[in-house]
Amino acid sequence: MDRRWRDVGVLAGALFAVNVVARLVTRFGFDGDDAAADRVSLVMFLLIGLILAVVAFRWGCRRPLGNWAGDIVVVVLVAMTLTVLVGPLLVGHNPFAGGAGTFFAQIWLYLLATGAGTLVGYLVATALGRDYRSQQLKRFAEVKAAKPRRVVRR
After folding, report:
1. What tens digit of pLDDT does each residue of 54-68 get?
2. Which of 14, 20, 77, 91 sits most deeply, having the most CB atoms within 10 A of its CB?
């Protein structure tokens, strides 16, 4: 159980770290350039989605969907909360400085990136037949094919 929560915490921290790096690059490298800041934000969201796609693929191969889906939800909620509320404070901005529209746009974009990444990762695992359920069905078919048919005498 401790390993499970450690994995959740490390993943949430990694997603938050990607956001912090993107904010620092924007702040010190492209201060005032909105086009460059948008590109850095796009790369950040793509990287977050890619990280979650890899995690969903790996966790989907090892555990049933019901076991790891809740962990992903907790990771996304914790990382999103840190990203939206704490991230701006680290670079000297107010989280609500852009108004309600910007604040909620960050939340929707984060949920979109994380949801798309998780979905892509799990769908790739399923399409390749590497997800947990496909592996269970494969083992079941192998066991059934290995046993000879029992003859019933009358």
Report:
1. 999 999 999 998 889
2. 20
